[in-house]
Amino acid sequence: MSTEITKERLEALKAGHKVLAEFSYEPPQIEKGYAGQTLYVNVSDNTIAARPVDDRMKSAFVGGRGFDLWLLWNAVTGTTRWSSPENEIVIAAGPIGGITQYPGTGKSIAVTISPLTDTVVDSNVGGYFGPLLKFSGFDAIEVQGIADKEVLVFVDGNAGTVQIIEAPEESVNSHILAEEMVALFAEKPGERQAVSSVSAGIGAEHALIGCLNFSFYDPRRGVARLKQAGRGGIGTVLRKKKIKALVVKYVGLKGDSTGPEDLKSIQDTGAKMHREIYERDSIMFEMRKDGTNHLTKIMNDYDILPVHNFRYGAHPDAEKIYSPHFQEHFDYSAPDGCWYGCTLACAKFARQLELRSGPYKGHVVTVDGPEYETVAGIGANCGIWDAHAVLEANFYCDTYGIDTISFGTGMAFAMECFEEGVLTTEHTSGLQLNFGNSEAMLEVLHQIARGEGFGAIFGQGIRRMKRFFAEEYGADPQFLQDIGMEAKGLEYSEYVTKESLAQQGGYGMANKGPQHDEAWLIFMDAVNNQIPTFEDKAEALHYFPMWRTWFGLMGLCKLPWNDVEPADNRTAYTGMDAAKVPEHVQNYVDLFRGVTGRTDVESGQDLIRMSEVVYNFQRVFNLKMGFGTREHDAIPYRSAGPVTDVEYESRAERYDQQLRELVGINPDDMNTEEKRLALRRYREDRYEKLLDAVYQRRGWTENGIPTLETVRALGLDFPDVVELVQRHTNGHG
After folding, report:
1. Please, are residues 79 and 179 in contact by the beta-carbon 8 Å criterion?
2. Would you place residue 731 in the very low, low, confident or very high pLDDT band (cuts 50, 70, 90)?
């Protein structure tokens, strides 16, 4: 998204700066993956402080998401709301984060109290910010308060200074602001890669679905690129705080900057994985060629691609948004890793896109992506079979600071409401919001950025739209609940789960709401039938969310784990064991030991144990905020089965067979509505039985609360945690 920052513009930016507070520190030596301190910034009273990381914090919460949750837990109360000054945005990498010898080690994890869910949300993101922050001397940054005026927070890891700077002239939209931050803080051209920023655009000011943009500078293409912490409205919180950007600068990255215990072990493990990627990627998912959008064809082939608000799982026009239609935009002239050493290189770079709408109409821009979720959500789910329109929406979502998943799923919901007569042009600012109308879709996006028209309503997210449509337009609340694809207030990511009970549970029970990064079990469950019983599904819904949580503790991307597999993985292992990719699990054991030197970690089960602590703590955190019980694990029925007669009839042979073989009903003399309702009773009953099985496996009560016994066994016996659990379980463990 290259934007030239002229000398005159740069001088104007600098002229507007006023340092409101400055903190000096001695940058510590990073030892065994840890800086040993965190950074606290309050933009209300301009307080800046370094806070120590003690041994219990490391042993219980490890790093990354664990550190984030612990810091936020101690900053907020059960009555804190997303817009409260005491709410924080906390960002961390993790002890493995930032190593350069293994692919996928540049992740950061951000948490806050979400505008969408009213409870804690986490979101992971690539880019340079988390690693550079650690090398600057901080394992995490927590930002609290609401500034009086627009500010920047600048961490200079070489000078050992942190500043809060009044910044009235900087842009808000991220594709420009990221370039401005590089121009301002990279004193020499060779330092551009040493500067990373976190920002959110003007759309995040007017919507609850705002995302954070994390920048990384691409020297071969001469552009500051963006990756997104998209979920849960964290960008909305940043703009509420009147923070234009968090910026970190660190010059001097080396191969041993994490201070590892055993660098050779890390190098050997990384070399093995790099060879595997070079040999296997082209015969598996071609991440280096397509990025994640290769999944569009696979999902369509297996009837899992969301079409027309998750009504259907496939469409004959889907091939128009398969990866070849984006490849023609991709620039393959340079590697595409979003951190040093990532040979998987999935961060695709689309160039020379001429915009057809909005405030930048006619501009020729570059776009990072699109990811599968964006293609499936804005494309297939909205019935928009136009690669250019998807890329344009991707660009504007990024620069405006809007989550493409919430936008795509929300737009599909609004389009179905329009086609069903819930909405009319009187409600949609005159827009014909039918499936497939890309011009109307883009106009709603621009309205969000302007804070006007239907976009102002849409930007509140599906849960609030459902309430508004029922109260103001007289829509049927049950119908809206059935088709509104959100749970816990968070919009669904882009997979059709009707034929996968395990994935329905993976979405419904996810701590932050329905996001696939916690559990993706569709193929194991619905395609390969590897987890047929409730007990099998419960075991999968224990192991895989815990395993995926571990990546968020470390600062790691999950893609190198299972998107490239050893050649013998499917012959040496079967079923759930093969899905675990045991050789790669051992790689991560070796990496963790190599960085931290912890000899008590010997197997994958030791890694799972770390995640169990943090995962259960996050569940208790939800309880603190007034959630975290069984009723909040409910899902919209479209996630489980067909809501309408049209849906049922589109797969009538499949559903009739299920009625005969699974329900024990002969559908021959039943009309479609009768068959649909009979199937619904069966599927809703199975979902409740799944909850029972998973809760038991996880050591939770029937109401979905970790028992006192579980809390104590995991070492979470902090007084306030125990008191909270005890109060909600009446002391029963």
Report:
1. no
2. low
